Structures are given as C-alpha cells and as structure tokens.
Amino acid sequence: MATGLVRRPDSAGAPPAEQVHLQFGADASTQVSVSWAAPSAVARPRLQLGPAGLPASWQVEADERVCTDALTGVTAFTYHASVGSLEPGSRYAYQVLHDGSPPVPGTFSTAPRGRSAPFRFTSFGDQSVPAPVGRGCGPHSPNAGYVVDAVDRLDPLFHLLNGDLCYANGSDAPVATWASYFGNISRSARHRPWMPAPGNHENEAGNGPYGYLSYQTRFLLPGNGTPAHRGQWYAFTAGPVRVVALNNDDVCLQDGGFSGIRRDSVPGYLADGVDPYVRGYSGGLQRRWLERELAAARRDEEIDWIVVVMHQPAVSSAHFNGADLGVRQNWLPLFDAYGVDVVLAGHEHHYERSHPVRGVAPGSSLLTPAPAGRPVGRRHKPAEIDTRQGTVHLTIGGGGHPYSTPARRLHGPRQGIVIAGVERGNPLVQRRSVIETEPADWSAYREARAPYGFASFDVAPAEPGGMTSIAVTYWGASAGSASYRPRDRVVLRKPQRSAWLPGRDLAGSRPASRG
Ligand SMILES: [Fe+2]
Ligand SMILES: [Fe+2]
User: Fold this and answer.
1) Ligand 1 mean position to 299 CA, how many Å?
2) Ligand 2 ion: residues within 5 Å (CB)
3) Residues of 397-415 as b/e, b for ≥16 C-beta within 10 angstroms?
C-alpha cells in the first residue's frame, strides 16, 4: 500500500467510501477491479465479495493511490482492489469499506465465456457533470446526469467512455469535479464497469509528466506493459469481442489539452516546463503496442469482433473540431491491415456514423477514408453491414457537454472537416489548427436533431449458420430532456472468425496482413 507522507487517520468518524466504480481486467469473464475514493486517507480499505445471494466469502485488501493536483494542492485519495479467478457469466455482490465507516454495496456480472451467450454494451463520450462545481468554470448540463439513468435502464454488461469524462482540466476545482463525476456515474458504474479511453480534457497540465496522473490515479485498468503509461491504452476481451482503448493525444495534431485556467494558475507552469501539447509523448510505444494487440486479436480464433474506443475521431462533418490527420496517419493503416470492425470516438459533441471504410480515396492528400463495398454517393441508410468490407466509425460525443454540435454547424452533406496541421505555438498560447475540407463520401448518417445521446451494442455471438452480429442503436435526446429514443439503427453481421480467412475482405483486395 502506498502511503507516502499521509498520516493514518483514527478510524473513529472515518469518512465513508464514495465514488465507487468498476473496471474489467484483461479477461472480462474472470477479472474485475473495484475502485473508490474518500475525502481523506482511511485505514484498512478493503473489498468483500461473493456470489450474489450468498454471504461475502472473500476479502481483498485495497491499494491506496493518491494524487495531489498541481493547480489547487488538493489531494485525491483513491482505493483499488482487484479480483481474478471469477466464474464467467456469473453475478457477484460486493461491498467496500474501511475502519470506522459503513460498507457501500455493489453488484456486477462477469462476461460470458467465448460465444456462449449474448450481451450488451453501451458507449458515449464527452459527458461533463450535472451541476456546477467550484466557480462553475467547467462544463455541466442536466443531460450529463440523465444519460447515466438512460444507459443503466438498458442494463449493459459494460459501458465504454469515449474520452472527455468530466473536463477537470477546465475547472478551478478539478478534484471536486472528479468527485462530482464519479458521484454522478456511480449509481451505474458500481454495478457494471465503465471503461474509459482518455480524451484531451483528461490532460491536466502539471499532474504527472504528461498531465494524465489524475486520470491514472482514479482508474485501475488492464496493463499495457509500461507502468508509467498505465491506463493510457489497454485491451480487454468480453465474449468474442476484443476492446482496444487508445489515447489519441499521442498522435493528434490538434492542441486539445490546452487550459487557460491551468496556464494562469498552476504554480511553476512555465518554469517547470509544463506543456499540455503532448503529441508524440509515447515515442511510438503506443503504436507498437497497438499493432501487436491487433495482430494478436486477428490471429485469435475466439475473437470475432475488434472494437476500438478512442477520443478524437478519424472522420467528421461537424464544424467543431474536425477529424485529425494525425489519427488517420497513425491508426487507420493498422485498422485496415488487421480488420478493425468498429471505431468508437467522441470529441465532436454529436452522433455520426460512417459507411464501412477501407484504404484512402483516390487522389486524397488528406488520407480521406474510402467507402468500401457500398456505392459512393448513395444516401440511403443501410440496414446491415458486413464489417469484413471495412471499418465502421461511430462518433458518439453527446454524453452531456453543454456545447453540443448544433445542426447549423454540420456542414453540407458531402463536406468533411479535417485538422490537417497545427500552427506554431508554445505552452502559453494554444496552437491553432489548420482546417481543410474534403468530400465526405464516407458519411452514412448524422444526427442533427438530438445532439445528446449514447449508443447500445447488442452482441449475438452465435447466430444460425455460424454467423455473428452486433445490433447498433443510437439513443438521442434533446437538450434538457431525459427522454432518450432510438434514432439510428444498423446491424453489423458476418461469419464467425473460424469461417473466414484473416486479412481477406469481401472485395477481394488483400490488405497488408501481418498477423
Ligand atoms: Fe469534448
Ligand atoms: Fe475532446
């Protein structure tokens, strides 16, 4: 247990455990971590666990992780306990506690083993918090609260957070913002893992060498082989689905982590060389890890679906941020080579879905993804897609941030927006993006009327004839409304992995298969 210089408290009158949330380990059928926080250090933090309906039969001591925010000097105290060797497809009940406080209960289900049972997961990004925190500098909206209940009503096995969780980097009270965030999602996230990919607003300049220490302190995620980058990129398996989470700040051209309040108020910001523009910070480590992960997933005959969750999108027709050329340069060749089925992103505060895409449109200097297996320019909405043709990109960034992308800021039906470069700058002045436009033949559906929302994914691992499918539904709501209704539906369907050869698409072209 890492205690640092923190004085152990007397247990009498200890503050209660709060912000309880779950994460899966690399194998979601057997491994779960429980995390929580307390307003000050606590004694003997622990997890008690057992099969649902029975008395808790196991106890696991929790590790303490602390992080002191560079802006405010406030320390966050977090606690994490992991369990493995659980039974697949099983229901468990647990409680977290420490000396002098009442236990806080929760439940979860492990993922089914292999293709043995269907399950559902959900996803959105860009949530924020439901009410002002501190001086109210950070974003907040009622929908950031409503979406938690909307997700929970669907009872997913797990939820994917596509980055920009609580926007603590824009708040004068970042530790309280995180507390508000977990306080809001915990009513769902203590009953099912909410698995995050970091977004640009998880970069809190001055917190750790690259700004992510606060985020890293609060989550216990599957390992990636590099402890210094823990939680930045990772993967886990649920049934026949391999989920790969990435940190796109590593490759993006856009200067998205800049925060005026941190520049102006973090002590030593300039003298200590703090710079939120961290493009290339992994030195290629993340890309090499990604290629190994994708190659292994594609070799694995038990994996039918590869789902990537990340923040900044590879395609966008919103005049808001734009797709980032850095994402296209670094990730899309790998997504093509290893046949990634679905990419989930956020950053643009709306919903947009692409046709399956593979390769680059002829003559495109912006690496515009080419629609694959569908006639270019047709405007009908496909009911069913075989993702062996190409990768379907979903931008689901309407989790709750109040600056949603209104209809007037969506460009024409065939115009995509691309961040093609970044102007020179420094840690004191946010670098400006160089924006270009492109034909958006990749765009299949854009939601202009219901900017707040999330998507659900119903995985059917074993359909008749050796087929498998994922039914995708986008649930949208208008601003201030708690009513999330289906707005877009599409079914992804293909044969199970054992029935097709890796690296061969339906068009007969053969991507660079190295796996
Ligand atoms: Fe955002
Ligand atoms: Fe963002």
Assistant:
1) 34
2) 164, 199-200, 347
3) bbbbbeebbeeebbbeeee
Query: Shortest CA distance to 300 belongs to which of 235, 387, 223, 219?
Result: 235
Output the CA 41–ligand 2 centroid distance in Å. Answer: 32
C-alpha 125 to ligand 2 mean position (Å): 9
Distance 241 CA to ligand 2 centre (A): 26
4-26 mean pLDDT: 77
Residues with CB under 5 A from ligand 1 (ion): 126, 164
pLDDT band at residue 13, thresholds of 50, 70 and 90?
confident
Question: For 229-251, what is each residue's pLDDT tens digit?
Answer: 999 999 999 999 999 999 999 99
> Which secondary-structure segment (H or E) carries 436?
strand 433-439
In this structure, the dihedral spanned by the alpha carbons of residues 262, 268, 269 and 271, taken in order and rounded to 10 degrees, is: 170
Separation in Å, CA 157 to CA 30, 148, 354, 393: 13, 14, 25, 22
Between the CA of 330 and the centroid of ligand 1 the distance, in Å, is: 21
Distance 203 CA to ligand 1 centre (A): 12
The pTM (predicted TM-score) of the whole model is 0.94
Q: Which amino acid is at 326?
A: G
Q: Helix, strand or coil for residue 42?
A: coil
Q: What is the pLDDT of residues 374-383, one digit of tens each?
A: 644 445 555 7
Q: Are the CB atoms for 62 and 77 separated by under 8 Å?
A: no
Tokens of 412: 């024409």
243 burial level (CB within 10 Å; 0-12, 13-18, 19+): buried
DSSP state of 498: G
